[in-house]
Each structure stands twice: as structure tokens, then as C-alpha cells.
């Protein structure tokens, strides 16, 4: 299988972006990440991940939604590409296959 | 966020963001951090929000978000290629200018490199010993109301006693001894090679523990442990044992004492404060003193060095010296003796004591040389600045074109600084070539052995690179500034350019010539002072006196025989024998005159009959020592005029008959007073002096070191042959050796001679460099005014008028420089001269000479151009108008 180069952090970010749908931009992703994992990623780390994911073709972005709070600057919204979705599927499949091949400790005997 | 307040985050992290990040990211990033900031301010303190704002921004500054600098860089590189090309073309196009500029700078750099090498070498003295930082020489100051001595050497027992007294503090102690004799005779009997050697020392077995001289063969541990052992240097091994292994062979000392060669040392390093050829084990000395070392604490002939333990400071030991002196030194000198530890590494540059092993150098000359190096370099750099700015007009059009094509001022500055760095680099290469060529001559002049390869070590190369950079930047900065500030439109229109920076340039030229004039004055004063020191007016006759070293030779038994035989020759006028070289050295003795409670130390000089006659020293009162008066040997003294004055005895006549104690009784008398003469070099004033007759045979073991023979000046060689045949008639087996007194005395002023030689050379070079600069400036000033001269010629100006028109400006500058230089050089030379007891007054003529010299050289330089300019046909210069 072709190695998709999806790191743990990247995978989580990608999943969160998918789950947020239309409202996925840096701050909301940060909040969501924090809510699910109790980890608080820095804004720098997130942007660096977005940049990598976009380069790999898993993400697309568009700008918009300027608010006062941002001093009138736009947000950059992210959406998953089909290729990104496939990478998530591949990763899930790989993990569940491997998971099912685990010996059923304790229960079978 | 309606109604909610807008918080302002701190500005400077934001600036970091815009400096670092690519524009395509900035807005999004900034929006994000602003939004986070607002949230945090709603819920927390300002400080924590500010801090987290800063860290967020720091976190955003990652490589992927960086501005792309590559485009700018590649442009820079191609621009540098262009700068290089332009530099190269200018270099070739303006050949005269380039030559002047480069040669001036190269000479300046070469001078400073040479001086740097010299200074470096001077500072390196005695630092090659591993323990040099804790090695000290033990000094004895013996001062009794201004008389006495500052001795570099110690009594025989001092070294070992010192070590046992301070066994916790002192790691090693070593004594060096050479009978205070100018030379000792050594011979390889087997091959019949016999020479008088001057660099022979007796040394304790710790010699190689204290000093890290390299032993080539033999055992380092046991080398000097046994009596009758000798270490020789490689060149001496070649001299005495040309074709054989010297180890285990024998050398004969003074014709009686056999010494076994137990090791070969590398030749003594030139940067050590004493030079040696032979080291003899100290225990070999015992037979010379009747089986044991001398126990006297009065006679101090041993140079004593100690190595302190690692954690011991000099002060710790020195604070205990008074009790040491009290415990060991004899009662009658105890109160006047102080001891001192002198760091080994200070000896060469700071030490000028009595009984130094060799004359040392002087820290003052290091300062003077460094100052000269700095000034030569400064003058060369000023030349560079002047020439570059002067020719700025020639390149104004280039600047205009560059500017109109979009070159920024900073780029132009970069270009010209690059150019000056490049030129400096070239000059440095030439300078190194000059240094390589002239280093042997320089070494000869300064009596050094510095090799060129020293400069090729990494840290030296780095230093040279550093000098290039500093000189290049300093001298490139001002021209770059001037050139880049031209107005684009006016230079392109070809409008008449005001030569900007003329005033600044005038100041620089004035500085240059002030320095040159100061150097010339300094040189003249230094030469005069040297002449003054070396002139023969020392109160005794030093010409045609042949000195024959005789210490520890059998001369004691044969002296009278030798004297009678030699005096039969018509070419020999008079003979005497003396303790030290007259006019260079003396010893110290204690005397007690009538009315004194205890004895006092005076400069003392042992000699034989006919002393005053041989050296032509007038007797002002009384008589000289007489062969026919038996008691003269111990019960009579001759003193000098200063002595009479210091005792307040009135006139020399009144001094005759004054009595002194001899062996506890008031039996001796003063029988004569000689006219004052300089019994040491003119570095010191004349002190009270006692001349004692010592006619005992044993005197030649210690108190008489030379026979002095006054010869007839007509035929020197025959006279010396006569002395030698008289010598051979009494001592056929001893090598005969001699030197001329005046040659040796001239050596006392070696340091001054070296100083004046070096200053002459470098001040000539400085003036040369300054004139190169003036020549260049005059070239451009004439070129600028060709049209003016053309018009004036049409209107009938004469050549002398052109000359005065063009030279007026420069000569005025030199006049100002002269006025500035006078007080400065007066103060500096005055200060230098104050270091001498015998010094010249400051005359007016060095000032006049230096002023005239500079004036004439500058005038000739400018005149050359004026004449050239006046020879041009005005049609040539005006036809374009």
C-alpha cells in the first residue's frame, strides 16, 4: 500500500476539519482539538500542519468571514479534499485490520 | 463581538511577524492571533495575554512561512560580479592612480607587519618555558644612601637556602654562574681545538627542570647530577667534535679541568633572555673554591631562578623576605638589602639592573615601534581616502547612471566599500611580498631571527585578514559616502561638480604631514641623542685600548713578566689590569672612613698600576698608585671627584690624607683624586667611585679580569701581534683572545642604535607614503583645473605664476601641519630624553630641518604637476569648449 504520510497530529486535524464541516478555521479547529483530546495545540503548530496537509493535497482552503475581533481580517477556512477523505479511509482501514488481528486476550479462553 | 471592547495587543511582536513572514500568510496569521488575544483579554490578565500573544507569534515563525530572500540574493551576487568588473576596469584605466594607491597602502601595511613581527617576537621572550608563569628571578637590591647596586644575581648560598627555607612554596631553584668572566677557555685536547667561549654557565642540576630547553641526546633527569659534566649545544658539538659523537668525550676548561660531555642541547632559542653554548654541572665548581662552595652572603655572583608551587603567589613569598634577609645576610649590609622576585617573562622588556647576563630590551621601544606602525598605517589609509574621494569627480557619471537605473544609495555604498576592500586585499598581498623580501634585512637590522612562516599560522592569517577588513572598511567608508551622495540629475547634466569633502581632505592631509614631521623630528632627536651618548667624551681614553680577558688564567703568576716583555715593543705604550670593562661595569665594596659609624657601600674598581696613565685619566690631586710604595696595595685609596663632593671634604686637595679603616684599624689614607669619568654607560650619572690597587697574585682569580693594553694607533695589527707574542712567551698553552674597548662600549648603546635605525627607516617610508598621497592629490587637482589654466595661459599667465597658483593650497596645509607638529613632537621627545641621565637639549634646528625637508619634498611633488600643466598647449584643453 502506498504510504500516505499522515502523522498522528495531522490525522486528528484532518478528522476535526472533516467533522467541523463548513466552519473549519484555525481557532475553531484549535477549540475542537482541545475539547476532544485535552491537548492545547499552539496556533503555530496548527498552521504548520495545515500547510503540510494542503501541500500533500488533503486540504483545500478559501478565505472569508472577516470579523471585528480579528481586526477586520478574513479567516482561512479548510475543507477536506476527496484525496484527503481517501487517506482517512485508508488509515482507518489499516488500523481496524490490524486491530482485528490482535489476539483476543482473556475473552477467548 | 458587538459592543464588546477592542483590545490592542503589543506592537513589537507584530513587527516580528511582518519582518519574518511571507505576505501571503501575514493577514491570516495576524487575524488568528488577534482573535485569540481578544478572547484571552476577556478572560484573563493583560500580562498573560501579552505573553501568550508573543509566544503564539514566535510559534508562527516557522521555515515554511518565511519570506523568500532568494530572489534578492541572486541579484546581489550578480551585482557583486559587476562591482568586481568595474573595480578591475578602473584599476587598469587609471594606472597612475591605482599604482599610487596600492603602493602606498602596501608599503604602509608592510611596515606595520614588519613592526608587528618585531613586537610579537619581543613579547614572546621566555614564554616558551612551560613553567614561565611561575618562574622568578631572585633580585638583590643593595642600597646605602643612594650608593650600591640593584643586582640581578645572588650570593652563592641564596638559592639552596631559599629552597630549604621555603620548601612548601618553592618547587625548584637553580643557580647560574660564570665567574662574572667575559670568556672561559675550552679545549678538545684530542683534536687540538681550543677556543675562548663567552656563553658558558655553571648550573645546578635543576636547570632542565626550571627551563624547558630541548635536550637532543643524553638523559634529562640525570644530565647535571654529577660533577665534571658538561652539556653542549648542537653548534658547539659541530665546532669541537665535527665528525664524532660528542657523548662521553672530554672538554678541558681553562687548561686544567676535564669535563665529560653528558648531553647535547638544542641551540639556545633566540627569544630567551640569556644565550648559552655550554652548561657545566654546578658541583664541578667546588675544586675552584677549595673543595666547597663559597659561603659568603656578600659576594653575589649567582643568577638565581626559582619556580614557585602552582598555588603560591609572588606576594606570599615576598612578604616573608625581610625575615629571610635578617636571618642570613651579614650584619653590616642587612639593613640595606631587600630581595625581590622578578617574573621571568618581565626580564627581557622591563629589567635593566646591574649584572644582567645580557643587555635587555626596553618596553619603551616597543611602544615607540607600535606607535610608528600605527601611524604609517594611518597615513596609508588617509592616502587611500584622499585619492578615492579626489577621483570621485571622474566617476560621477558612473554614479549618475547607476542611480538613474535604480541603484539605491545603500547599494552604491556597498559597491565602493567592496572596491576598497578589494584594493586593501590586493595591497595586503603586495605587502606580504614586500615583507618576505625585506624580512632578512630587517632581521639583520634588529638582530632578530623572525621567520616568514610565522605569519602563515592560522591565527596570524586571521589577524592579517582582520587588518585588511578594518583598513578596507575605514578607508572605504568616507569615499563611499561621498560618491553615493551625488545628485543624479546634476552629474548626468555634466554640471560643474563642487568637489565635496575638500575640507575633510585638507584636514586629513594636514594630519598626514603633522605625523610625518613629528617622525622626522623624533628621528633627528634620536640620532642626536645616540651620537651624544656614543661620543668619546667620557673622561677617559677609549681608543686604541686592547682588552685581553685573563680571569682564571695563570696570568696572575706572569703578569709582571708579561708587562715587561710587552712594553719592550715600541708599539705598546702602557699596560694595566682591571676588574671590569672600564666605562661599562663596576663592582661594589664596603668602606668605612674616619668619622663613620659603620661601613658603607661604594662603587669599587680593582686595578693594577698605571691605570690612570693607560686610560689617560687626569689626577686632580695627590698621586696615582706607585710601584715603589709597598703600602699602596691595601692602605691607600684613590677616589673620584664625585666621591670627594659626596663626603663634603671640600676641594680634592683637602681629601688627600683622609683616613679609612683597614681590618678594623684606622690605617688607610686617600692618596689621590682622579677627575670624574663615566665608569658606566651614560645611561647613569657619575657616582662616587673608589679605585683600589690589587697587586696580589690571587687577584686574577676574581678581582682582575682583563689586561688593558694601550697601543700605538699607527699599526694596529703589528701591535696585537706583539701582545700575542708576549702572551705566548709567558703562557704558551693558553688561547689568546682580545677585543677593542671602544667597540664594546658602543654596544652599551645597542638599544638606542636599534631604535634610531628603525625610526630612520620607517620615518623615511612614512614621508614617502605621504608624498605618494600628495602626488596623487596634486594630479587630480591639476586635472580639475586644466581648463582654468588653459584660460589663464591664453590671458598670459607665466609659469612661475602657475606654480604659485597650484602649490599655494598645499603648501599652506603643510605650514599648518608644521605648526601642529611642533608642540606635539616637543613634548614627546622631551619625555623620551628625560629617561637619560646624559641628554641633549632640544635644539631649534631639528624643527627647521624637518619643516624645510617636508616643505621641499612637497613643493617638488606639486611643482612637477604645475610644470606639466603649464606645458600643455591651451588649445588642447580649450578646444572642447
Order of helices and strands of chain A: HHHEEH
How confident overall, as mean pLDDT of chain B?
86
What fraction, in percent, of the residue positions of chain B are helical?
Answer: 40-55%
Task: State the oligomer.
Answer: heterodimer
Radius of gyration of chain B: 38 Å
Question: What fraction of the residues of chain A are assigned to beta strands by DSSP?
Answer: 5-15%
- Strand line-up of the largest beta sheet of chain A: 1-2
> What is the number of strand segments of chain A?
2
Provide the β-strand percentage band of chain B: 15-25%
Structural class, from helix and strand content of chain A?
A: mainly alpha
Q: Which class best fits the helix and strand makeup of chain B?
A: alpha+beta
Instruction: Please tell me the overall pLDDT of chain A.
Output: 85
Silhouette of chain B: globular
Notable features of this structure?
heterodimer, A: 109 residues, mainly alpha, two-stranded antiparallel ribbon, 53% helix, B: 881 residues, alpha+beta, 30 helices, 24 strands
Report on this model:
The complex is a heterodimer of chains A (109) and B (881). By secondary structure, chain A is mainly alpha-helical. A two-stranded antiparallel sheet of chain A has the order 1-2. The model of chain A has no long low-confidence stretch (mean pLDDT 85). Chain B is an alpha+beta fold and 881 residues long. The N and C termini of chain B lie far apart (77 Å). The mean pLDDT of chain B is 86. Chain B has 30 helices and 24 strands. At the A-B interface, helix 3 of A face helix 2 and helix 3 of B.
Amino acid at each position: 500500500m502506498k504510504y500516505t504520510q499522515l502523522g498522528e497530529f495531522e490525522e486528528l486535524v484532518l478528522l476535526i476539519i472533516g467533522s467541523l464541516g463548513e466552519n473549519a478555521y484555525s481557532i475553531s479547529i484549535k477549540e475542537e482539538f482541545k475539547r476532544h483530546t485535552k491537548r492545547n495545540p499552539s496556533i503555530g503548530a496548527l498552521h504548520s500542519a495545515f500547510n503540510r496537509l494542503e501541500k500533500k493535497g488533503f486540504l483545500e482552503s478559501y478565505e472569508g468571514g472577516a470579523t471585528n475581533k480579528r481586526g477586520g481580517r478574513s479567516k482561512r477556512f479548510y475543507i477536506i479534499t476527496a484525496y484527503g477523505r481517501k487517506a482517512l479511509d485508508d488509515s482507518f482501514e489499516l488500523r481496524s485490520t490490524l486491530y482485528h488481528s490482535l489476539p483476543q486476550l482473556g475473552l477467548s479462553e | 463581538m458587538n459592543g464588546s471592547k477592542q483590545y490592542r495587543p503589543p506592537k513589537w511582536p507584530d513587527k516580528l511577524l511582518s519582518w519574518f513572514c511571507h505576505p501571503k500568510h501575514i493577514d491570516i496569521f495576524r487575524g488568528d492571533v488577534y482573535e485569540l488575544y481578544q478572547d484571552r483579554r476577556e478572560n484573563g490578565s493583560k500580562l498573560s495575554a501579552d505573553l501568550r500573544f508573543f509566544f503564539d507569534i514566535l510559534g508562527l515563525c516557522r521555515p515554511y512561512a518565511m519570506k523568500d530572500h532568494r530572489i534578492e540574493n541572486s541579484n546581489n551576487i550578480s551585482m557583486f560580479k559587476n562591482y568586481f568588473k568595474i573595480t578591475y576596469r578602473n584599476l587598469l584605466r587609471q594606472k597612475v592612480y591605482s599604482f599610487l594607491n596600492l603602493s602606498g597602502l602596501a608599503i604602509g601595511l608592510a611596515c606595520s607587519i614588519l613592526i608587528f613581527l618585531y613586537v610579537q617576537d619581543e613579547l614572546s621572550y621566555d614564554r616558551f618555558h612551560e613553567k614561565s608563569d611561575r618562574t622568578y628571578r631572585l633580585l638583590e637590591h643593595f642600597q646605602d644612601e643612594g650608593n650600591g647596586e640593584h643586582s640581578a644575581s645572588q650570593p652563592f648560598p641564596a638559592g639552596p637556602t631559599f629552597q630549604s627555607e621555603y620548601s612548601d612554596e618553592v618547587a625548584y631553584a637553580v643557580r647560574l654562574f660564570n665567574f662574572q668572566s667575559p670568556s672561559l677557555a675550552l679545549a678538545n685536547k684530542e683534536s687540538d681545538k681550543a677556543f675562548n667561549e663567552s656563553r658558558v654557565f655553571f648550573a645546578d642540576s635543576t636547570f632542565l627542570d626550571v627551563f624547558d630547553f630541548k635536550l637532543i641526546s643524553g638523559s634529562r633527569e640525570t644530565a647535571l647530577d654529577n660533577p665534571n659534566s658538561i652539556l653542549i649545544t648542537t653548534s658547539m658539538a659541530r665546532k669541537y667534535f665535527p665528525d664524532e659523537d660528542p657523548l662521553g668525550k672530554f672538554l678541558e676548561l681553562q687548561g686544567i679541568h676535564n669535563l665529560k660531555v653528558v648531553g647535547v642541547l638544542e641551540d639556545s632559542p633566540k627569544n630567551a633572555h640569556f644565550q648559552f653554548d655550554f652548561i657545566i654541572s654546578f658541583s664541578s665548581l667546588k675544586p675552584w673554591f677549595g673543595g666547597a662552595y663559597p659561603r659568603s652572603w656578600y659576594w653575589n655572583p649567582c643568577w638565581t631562578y626559582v619556580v614557585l608551587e602552582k598555588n603560591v603567589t609572588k606576594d606570599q613569598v615576598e612578604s616573608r623576605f625581610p625575615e629571610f634577609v635578617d636571618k642570613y645576610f651579614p650584619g653590616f649590609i642587612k639593613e640595606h638589602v631587600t630581595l625581590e622576585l622578578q617574573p621571568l617573562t618581565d626580564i627581557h622588556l622591563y629589567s635593566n639592573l646591574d649584572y644582567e647576563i645580557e643587555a635587555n630590551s626596553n618596553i619603551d621601544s616597543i611602544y615607540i615601534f607600535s606607535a610608528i606602525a600605527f601611524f604609517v598605517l594611518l597615513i596609508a589609509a588617509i592616502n587611500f581616502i584622499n585619492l578615492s574621494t579626489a577621483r570621485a569627480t571622474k566617476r560621477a557619471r558612473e554614479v549618475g547612471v547607476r542611480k538613474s537605473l535604480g541603484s539605491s544609495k545603500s547599494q552604491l555604498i556597498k559597491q565602493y566599500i567592496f572596491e576598497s576592500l578589494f584594493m586593501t586585499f590586493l595591497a595586503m598581498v603586495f605587502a606580504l611580498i614586500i615583507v618576505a623580501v625585506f624580512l632578512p634585512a630587517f632581521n639583520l637590522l634588529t638582530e632578530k631571527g623572525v621567520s616568514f612562516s610565522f605569519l602563515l599560522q592560522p591565527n596570524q592569517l586571521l589577524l592579517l585578514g582582520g587588518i585588511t577588513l578594518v583598513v578596507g572598511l575605514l578607508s572605504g567608508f568616507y569615499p563611499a559616502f561621498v560618491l553615493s551622495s551625488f545628485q543624479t540629475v546634476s552629474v548626468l547634466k555634466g554640471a560643474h561638480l563642487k568637489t565635496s569633502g575638500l575640507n575633510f581632505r585638507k584636514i586629513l592631509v594636514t594630519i598626514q604631514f603633522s605625523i610625518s614631521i613629528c617622525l622626522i623630528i623624533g628621528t633627528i632627536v634620536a640620532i642626536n641623542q645616540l651620537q651624544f651618548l656614543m661620543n668619546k667624551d667620557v673622561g677617559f681614553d677609549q681608543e686604541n685600548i686592547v682588552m685581553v680577558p685573563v680571569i682564571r688564567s695563570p696570568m696572575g703568576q706572569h703578569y709582571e713578566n708579561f708587562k715587561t716583555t710587552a712594553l719592550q715593543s715600541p708599539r705598546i705604550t702602557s699596560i694595566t689590569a682591571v676588574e671590569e670593562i672600564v666605562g661599562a661595569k663596576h663592582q661594589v665594596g664596603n668602606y668605612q672612613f674616619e668619622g663613620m659609624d659603620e661601613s658603607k657601600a661604594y662603587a669599587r674598581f680593582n686595578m693594577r698600576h698605571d691605570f690612570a696613565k693607560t686610560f689617560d685619566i687626569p689626577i686632580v690631586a695627590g698621586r696615582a698608585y706607585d710601584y715603589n710604595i709597598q703600602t699602596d696595595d691595601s692602605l691607600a685609596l684613590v677616589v673620584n671627584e664625585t666621591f670627594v663632593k659626596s663626603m663634603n671634604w671640600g676641594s680634592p686637595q683637602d681629601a688627600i690624607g683622609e683616613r679609612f679603616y683597614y681590618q678594623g684599624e684606622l690605617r688607610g689614607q686617600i692618596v689621590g683624586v682622579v677627575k670624574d669619568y663615566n665608569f658606566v654607560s651614560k645611561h647613569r650619572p657619575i657616582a662616587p667611585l673608589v679605585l683600589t690597587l690589587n697587586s696580589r697574585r690571587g687577584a686574577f682569580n676574581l678581582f682582575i679580569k682583563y689586561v688593558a693594553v694601550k697601543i700605538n694607533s699607527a699599526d694596529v695589527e703589528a701591535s696585537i701581534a706583539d701582545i700575542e707574542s708576549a702572551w705566548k712567551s709567558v703562557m704558551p698553552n693558553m688561547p689568546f683572545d682580545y677585543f677593542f674597548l671602544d667597540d664594546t662600549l658602543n654596544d652599551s648603546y645597542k638599544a638606542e642604535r636599534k631604535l634610531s635605525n628603525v625610526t630612520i627607516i620607517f620615518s623615511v617610508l612614512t614621508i614617502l607614503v605621504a608624498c605618494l598621497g600628495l602626488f596623487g592629490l596634486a594630479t587630480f587637482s591639476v586635472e580639475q583645473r586644466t581648463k582654468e589654466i588653459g584660460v589663464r595661459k591664453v590671458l598670459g599667465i607665466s609659469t612661475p605664476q602657475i606654480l604659485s597658483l597650484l602649490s599655494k593650497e598645499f603648501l599652506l596645509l603643510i605650514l599648518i601641519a608644521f605648526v601642529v607638529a611642533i608642540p606635539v613632537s616637543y613634548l614627546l621627545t622631551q619625555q623620551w630624553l628625560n629617561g637619560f641621565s646624559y641628554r641633549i637639549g632640544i635644539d631649534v634646528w631639528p624643527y627647521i630641518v624637518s619643516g624645510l625637508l617636508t616643505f621641499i619634498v612637497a613643493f617638488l611633488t606639486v611643482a612637477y604637476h604645475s610644470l606639466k600643466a603649464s606645458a600643455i598647449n591651451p588649445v588642447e584643453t580649450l578646444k572642447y569648449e
